[in-house]
Amino acid sequence: MMRHGGKILSDQLVKLGVKRVFSVPGESFLAALDGLYDSGIDNIVCRQEGGAAMMAEAYGKMTGQPGVCFVTRGPGATNASAGVHVAMQDSTPMVLFIGQIDNRQTDRETFQEVDYRAMFGGLAKWVAQVDHTERLPEYIARAFRVAQSGRPGPVVLALPENMLSASADVPDCAAMTMPMASSDQTVFAAMVEKLQSASSPLIVVGGPAWHNAAARDLVAFAEKTGIPVAAGFRRQDYFDNRHPNYAGDLNVGVNPRLATRVRDADCLLLLGTRFGDIETQGYSLVDPANPQKTILHCHADVDEIGRVYAADIGIAVAAPNAIIGLLQVLRNDDRWTKHSDWCAACRTDYDAWLRPVESPGALKQENVIKWLSDTLPDDAILTNGAGNYAAWLHRYFVYKQHGTQLAPTSGSMGYGFPAAVSASLEYPDRTVVCLAGDGCFQMTLNEMSTAIQHGAKPVVIVTNNGRYGTIRMHQEKTYPGRVSGTVLANPDFAALARAYGGHGETVRDDTEFAAAFARAQASGTLAVIECVLDDRVLSTGASLPA
Ligand SMILES: Cc1ncc(C[n+]2csc(CCOP(=O)(O)OP(=O)(O)O)c2C)c(N)n1
Ligand SMILES: [Mg+2]
Q1: How far apart are alpha carbons 339 and 457 in whole angstroms?
Q2: Is residue 505 within a helix (H) or strand (E), and if so which, with residue range?
Q3: What is the CA(544)–ligand 1 centre distance, in A?
């Protein structure tokens, strides 16, 4: 049966289980839009490709299935690159389709022509251009496989306009099963021996491909061995923070006592994490040249093991499967009682860290975050981008289950809002709260109309301090009194939300917050609560909760 390229593409997406895509249209992929027309796939029509790509990335982060995004060539692709970078650093499966120029016109600097292999070279896991209509199923199936395999990441497929609109007689590729990584029990047994002989072992969990069953298995492993668990940067929802083995997270503003624990640990079990720049505080907590501790590393991509830290024992297997392997070794092993003091001490450090440090003014972020943490349902989803406001969220919010934190380890501003829209679409019955700075929110708030159009109803809490606070803080430290390039003149965020058809409130005192939040939720639509901060907060950084 002859089908045009757009139809072959959409049929293949259906076969691969795609239910939703995020897009900004372009004349370069009209045939793909035509294929989507009666495909049953939901097309979320966005306002800017950066937002669309971040929504797709958040979908991949939430579900473990590639988030799919369609953008046009040239300006569409350059806008979308913001979300591709998040997916790359966060190891998130994602497939970006770019409508490309007619491939008979290449290398003439044709209108909006870009060489995507060059442009996305270091930014994506794989980039290809499909030049033959009959090979679309093959490329798409491979793109989905590559996006999910080993260390997941973004794949970019360029689709020349003439290739998409031409017809071919070609069958769909079957939905694939991912190849299984084999894991050798003797390796897990050797890891367990190292942990048993250590006196202060610490687990650091992070990376992609996590799920609730893995979190439960990790609880079982931690309880059996008495080993404390620390979360990687912005992976705080991997282990119930209320559990006595939870020791806190390795964040930008890390608990100094947890940093000392990492230094002092004589054995680290790294589960899925790359144990990167942020977790190691710029590689200072553990010296790559001389770690002075035993390192046991489980990561799905063999090339991530030893990339910075040479592991004493490494195994190329995804963290959830590694925990199953470790638990199997432990089944008949009753030697484990000895780490309980060390574990309790780590927990005491975390409990002390949770106690609020008072910040100036009537609206105290520590009170807002504590209220959210104590009040929201366990499965509420919290999203954020980058900015000092996020420091309060990371420090005071107690994450209770996996799938409740959507945050960019890449440190991308503007991420929180599109991620919240994506989360609200995927889980319409769950509470979704976006934390944003006044700077952060303004990078992607045009997606408010996308939210209204498609029925997403997150509550956005905008922390308004009239500045790019993080940078101002660094500026005050390095060039005191010389405020340069960090001041923001802001709109009335509440009125703006109402203009978009949503609900808007302004809060200046944290005692007003609970009632405002209740009204925001009761509105049943997109809601924005603007929290106006005291001018003294963060002008020097002295009141950062660190
Ligand atoms: C896309 C992007 N641009 C710039 C930066 C650098 N940056 C990091 S935090 C920050 C300021 C954030 O301001 P805001 O959202 O208002 O939060 P605040 O720090 O004031 O709480 C900037 C500009 C970044 N991380 N991401
Ligand atoms: Mg700000």
Answers
A1: 45
A2: strand 503-507
A3: 15
Ligand 1 pocket test, candidate residues 468, 472, 493, 533, most atoms within 8 A of CB: 468
Contact, 97 vs 33, CB < 8 A? no
* 108 exposure class (CB count in 10 Å sphere: 0-12, 13-18, 19+): exposed
Specify the pTM. Answer: 0.96
Query: How many residues can be counted in the chain?
Result: 546
Kindly give the confidence (pLDDT) of every residue in the chain, 546 residues in length, as a single tens digit, with 9 standing for 90 and above. Answer: 999 999 999 999 999 999 999 999 999 999 999 999 999 999 999 999 999 999 999 999 999 999 999 999 999 999 999 999 999 999 999 999 999 999 999 999 999 999 999 999 999 999 999 999 999 999 999 999 999 999 999 999 999 999 999 999 999 998 777 777 777 899 999 999 999 999 999 999 999 999 999 999 999 999 999 999 999 999 999 999 999 999 999 999 999 999 999 999 999 999 999 999 999 999 999 999 999 999 999 999 999 999 999 999 999 999 999 999 999 999 888 888 777 899 999 999 999 999 999 999 999 999 999 999 999 999 999 999 999 999 999 999 999 999 999 999 999 999 999 999 999 999 999 999 999 999 999 999 999 999 999 999 999 999 999 999 999 999 999 999 999 999 999 999 999 999 999 999 999 999 999 999 999 999 999 999 999 999 888 654 445 554
For residue 389, the ligand 1 atom closest to its alpha carbon is 21
Ligand 1 in reach of 439 Cβ (< 6 A): yes
